[in-house]
Amino acid sequence: MTELTGIADATVTLLPLWTVVAAAAVLGAIIGSFLGAALVRLPMGRSVVVGRSACDGCGRTLSVWELVPVLSFAVLRGKCRTCDARIGGWQIACELGGAGVAVGAVAFAAEDGVLAAMLLGWQLLLLGLLDLRHLWLPRVLTGLLALSGLAVAAARAWFAQGIAPLVHAAAGGILGFALLWLIARAYERVRGRTGMGAGDPPLLGAIGLWLGPLGVVQTMLGASVAGLLAAIVMLVSKRSIASDTALPLGTCLAVTAWPLFLMQGAG
After folding, report:
1. Are the beta carbons of 219 and 211 closer than 8 angstroms?
2. pLDDT number for residue 231
3. % helix / strand / coil in the chain, to the nearest 5?
4. Taking the alpha carbons of 161, 164, 165, 166 in that order, is the dihedral positive or negative?
5. Number of neighbours of residue 116 by Cβ within 10 angstroms
């Protein structure tokens, strides 16, 4: 992968660190703004690339300066300048999250894996927020995550002049999907009802293509801890939890998988 990102690495070396971090934050916020639009539009069946952004309250088409990531939200104090309707917190969360992914990739990813870390992080950010907000993991997005994971593995195999990276990725993909699929089928057999979303096994399979078999196991363990912590928070906040209470497993998987990818590169 060093040859694949040689130009990017050389640029990073020549520029002061603060400029690289600032540029990454700006790029990430811009990507995050796009992800925020996707978070709103995809569940409504609307195109993400066609159509101007508008206020959810009064329907007014937003001007360019009102769409500057993070800065517009701060200047407008989170409200529409026409009708004072609140700008959804999900949008600013996407913008800050996108910036955080970019900065985190620059700061913690291996030198030859910065771009891959950004790509993975942004995809997991959108999938995690979609599951958190709508309990929905679109197969198209999960498929794109899988294809990008295969592409990264193929690039590694090309530069390594061997198929080991592809075998490692394929093993992780198969294990990830099979693990959650078997758990879901076992739960249905014992309890007589569905206990897992249909999008969760494909998501873990796609993550496995990025992280490999060991990464799948680590992601499952981390997601279990994250889910337990979420349940504790719900109990502390006095929210009722029943046997059929839905928890966004996909969000827990996404939150766990990206740091693991960074640690794999650092190791």
Report:
1. yes
2. 81
3. 75, 0, 25
4. positive
5. 24
Partnered with residue 86 across adjacent β-strands are: 79
Say if residue 246 is exposed, middle or buried (CB neighbours under 10 Å; 0-12, 13-18, 19+): exposed
DSSP 195-258: -S-TTHHHHHHHHHHHHHHHHHHHHHHHHHHHHHHHHHHHHHTT----TT----HHHHHHHHHH
pTM of the model: 0.88
Q: Estimate to the nearest angstrom the gap between the alpha carbon of 31 and the chain centroid.
A: 12
* Cβ contact 209:234 at 8 Å: no
Please tell me the distance from the alpha carbon of residue 249 to that of residue 135, in angstroms, as a whole number: 9
Report the 10 Å Cβ neighbour count for 10: 10
Q: What is the DSSP string of 31-46?
A: HHHHHHHHHHHGGGT-
Produce one character per residue of 188-226: b if its CB has 16 or more CB atoms within 10 Å, e if not: eeeeeeeebbebbbbbbbbbbbbbbbebbbbbbebbeeb
Q: Where are the alpha helices (DSSP H) in 109-163?
A: 114-134, 139-160
How open is the CA angle 155-33-225, to the nearest 5 degrees?
A: 70
Residue 13 pLDDT class (50, 70, 90 cuts): low
pLDDT of residue 2: 43
CA dihedral (176, 179, 181, 184) positive or negative: negative
Nearest to 206 by CA among 160, 248, 261: 261
Q: Say whether 264 sits in a helix, a strand or coil.
A: helix
Distance CA 4, CA 110 (A): 13
pLDDT at 126 over 50: yes
Please name the residues in contact with 30: beta carbons below 8 A apart, sequence gap of 6 or more. Answer: 69, 98
Q: Dig out the tokens for 82 from the structure.
A: 């026409």
- Contact residues for 153 (Cβ-Cβ < 8 A; gap 6+): 165, 166, 168, 169, 170, 209
